[in-house]
Write a structure and sequence with these properties.
Two copies of one chain form a homodimer. In chain A, about 55% of the residues lie in helices and about 15% in strands. By secondary structure, chain A is of the alpha+beta class. Chain A has a three-stranded antiparallel beta sheet with strand order 1-3-2. Chain A is elongated, with a radius of gyration of 20 Å. At the A-B interface, helix 2, helix 5 and helix 6 of A face helix 2, helix 5 and helix 6 of B. The structure holds a DNA duplex.
DNA sequence: TTGACATATGCCTATATAGGAATATTATTC
DNA sequence: GAATAATATTCCTATATAGGCATATGTCAA
């Protein structure tokens, strides 16, 4: 079996770096496709394809305005990812605390 | 071109749901492979392969103990993912605030 | 050393890509 | 309606999977 499809969930969709770039670019304001193309220096068809994936998993919203399509990041869809990573927070804090402890112990020894 | 390799970075590594399960399982305490196999009900070779990917991107650490291999989640490696998702936090808060506003406006109207 | 246990690796297959180029679709303006 | 602009889709290819299964490697115990 191959990997799960990029459109199967947000985790798979954001694995592609360009798509993360797009999400960051579209988070503050909606933008037409051409803006994204110009900002990121990617071929237009490539951008359209990435937007399709992002839209399919709900990471971006679209609005038509004349012949332009205005895309915008749906930040709420990123929240579950944030929550998942957050479940590890106390553990890396533990790690950092232990590192700090050791450093201070070494400090006292020398 | 195919997708970037699962071992190219943490984003690609955690796209696989089973690997996220493994990370959650190994976060509190180290565990031998057989424990993971039993806990998740996956075939042993499958678990070993997932662990290999996770180890290659630094998401787990290993320690040998006799004939067992004790794996443990390296929580610090998840932090960058947390930080990336965090950059969107203020935007979903905006979204929620706007939804709340509208709800209250409708409340006053009725 | 032989066996048993624990884990890792190899081989196989079907499949979903990302990128590139060309072209199709949709909307606007003259 | 024809030309133009903005975006989407299609066709192509090479490639890295995940899963299943068999087997290799490594470690201990008797």
């Amino acid at each position: 079996m191959p990997r799960a499809s990029t459109t199967s969930d947000a985790f798979n969709a954001i694995a592609e770096p360009r798509r993360r770039d797009i999400l960051s670019l579209l988070v503050a304001h909606e933008r037409p496709v051409n803006d994204i193309v110009a900002s990121l220096g990617l071929p237009q068809p490539s951008v359209s394809k990435h937007l399709r994936v992002l839209h399919e998993v709900g990471l971006v919203d679209v609005r038509r305005g004349g012949r332009q399509m205005f895309y915008r990041t749906n930040a709420a869809a990123i929240r579950p990812l944030h929550e998942w990573t957050r479940t590890f927070e106390r553990y890396w804090q533990h790690q950092l605390a232990r590192i700090k402890e050791r450093a201070e112990a070494n400090e006292r020894k020398s």
